[in-house]
Amino acid sequence: MSATIYIKSPHEIELMRQAAKIAAGARSMGRQAVRDGLTTHQIDRAVHEYIVKSGATPSCLGYEGFPAATCVSVNEEVIHGIPSRKRTVHNGDIVSIDLCATYKGFVGDCAGTYACGEVSAEAQKLIAVTRQAFFEALQFARPGYRIYDIGVAVQNYVESNGFSVVRDFVGHGIGRGMHEAPEVPNYRPERGSMRGGNPRLVKGMTICIEPMVCAGDWHVEILKDDWTVVSVDRSLAAHYENTVLITDGEPEILTMADDLWA
Ligand code: MF3
Ligand code: CO
Prior knowledge:
alpha+beta, Creatine Amidinohydrolase, five-stranded antiparallel beta sheet, four-stranded antiparallel beta sheet, 24% strand
C-alpha cells in the first residue's frame, strides 16, 4: 500500500457517496438474509445481487483471490469468512457481514454483525459494544485529532466493557482503492509500528473505521482455507465498519442507510 493519503475533491467525494450508499444498501440486504436455515452462500447472493443491480461491482470478489462478494463470518470467526453452501446459519448464531462495492471508480466498504434469532446476553452485548465503539471513535474523526486518537477511543471503550480488540487487522483509508493509506488501528500502536505513522486528520480524507472485537482474548489465527480469521480461544467475535468522510465539522458516515438501522 502506498503511504500517500489521497485527499478527495468535492467531485470525488460525491462519487464516494454514491459507492458507499450502494455498499450500505448491500449490508442491509445481507442483514435481512441472516435467518435460521439460510446458508452463508445465500447471504452472499443477497448482497451480490443488490450490488450488481445497483450498477456497481463487488470489489471483494477476486480480491487477492477471495472467491465471493461478501465476507460472512459466524460466531468465533472474526473476519474474511468464505460464504459456503454447506454452512447453515442457526438461531443463536451471530453473523458478521463485510462487503465492498465499486461504483464509478470508487469503493464503499462497510460491515456489521447481526444476531440470528435469539442470541445469548453475551452475544448481544458484544454486538452492541462493537457498534458503539465505532461511534465512540467517530467523535475523534475530525480535524484537530490524529489517526491514533480513533484507535485509542475504540480500545478504551471496548476494554472498559470487558472485551478485547483485534491487533492483527486494522482499518484503512479508502477511495479508488479498497485499501489506501493511512492504516487505522483499533488500539494504541507501538511507536513506529504503523506504516505511515500517525497522521493528522484533514478535511477530504475518507477512512474506514472498523472495530474487530473478541469476547475473550484478542489473539486470532487464520484457518486452513487461508482466509477465515478466528479467535484463538474460539470466543465470539464481532465487527462493525463504516466508510467515513472527514469534514470541517461533523464527520459524514458515507455507508449509513437512511434509516440509520445498520
Ligand atoms: N472489506 C474488507 C476490509 O474491510 C476487505 C475484505 S478482504 C476481501 O478491508 F478479500 F474479501 F476483499
Ligand atoms: Co474495511
